[in-house]
Amino acid sequence: MPVIAIPPGIEGIVGITELPDPAWADRWDRIVVAEDLKERLLNYMVFSLRHRGRLRAVALPVHGLVILSGPPGTGKTTLAGGLADRAAQQLGQPVLFVDINPHAFPSQLLGESQRSVARLFERTLPDLAARGILTVVLLDEVEAMAVNRSGASLETNPVDVHRATEAVLAGVDHVARTCPGVTFIATTNHRAGVDVAFISRADLVEEIDYPDAAAVHAILVDTLRELTDRPLDEVGLRALADRCAASQVDARQVRKLVLRAICDRRDLAVDPSGISVLDLEQTFRAGRGRLEAAT
Ligand SMILES: Nc1ncnc2c1ncn2[C@@H]1O[C@H](COP(=O)(O)OP(=O)(O)O)[C@@H](O)[C@H]1O
Ligand SMILES: [Mg+2]
Fold it and tell me: 16 pLDDT exceeds 80?
């Protein structure tokens, strides 16, 4: 599906994509999280996109905001795109996926961040929504944008931080009121850093944690199957999955373990189809199973 050109001068928008797009299906199918979590997310998204505009806010307040919270590398950003794609498939109609980078809003200068945030929510997003296509807006790592006012540090300008956070809250409320076809997905690696008033607006807050042994196993098999069709040592794989889960290796690092095993051996770099569970075990045992092991 075509990627829609970003209007020039619009800061904060990383990309706009029309979904469903077959190339995005992996973002849903290959992110391993509890099935009931996926089910809730999809049900919410279908309901919100289809019905939010018709509901009376006092009877059933639906803000059009879901938050995915959890440690880095657990699939939140990827799953957000997958969710929008799957919802578009489910609804049988196109959905615009708008990717916002909250880090793009400068906070150094008094008021500037607040003004650009206000412009995004009061002008840019309503303009996009006015195209009449259902729209999902990703506020990735929203802790950078809706900074928790109770914890704003003194190095940054607390007045500006407060104002920017207030602009986000007012902005989400404005879009909720005026753009019934828009639903937000916010992600955060640091829930305590997100303003409580933002979290309280969410219709659904879902925690995604480090993968358990069964999930690590599924991710390892999925990653290895990208490289080889050979039979895998099932006992060794289960033992490795247990160890990864016990040391809280995040899902991204589980996939990278396979890559690091390849980096350990020239023959695998040349022909990765020779990779085995034993190679992964050796790399894991050598302490190269996770990047942040030292911290
Ligand atoms: N739960 C998961 N299941 C399978 N792969 C995952 C999972 N979480 C992360 N990954 C892998 O790590 C990559 C980065 O994940 P990402 O969505 O950026 O995580 P987060 O946003 O939580 O930091 C994904 O594209 C995928 O390859
Ligand atoms: Mg992320």
Answer: yes
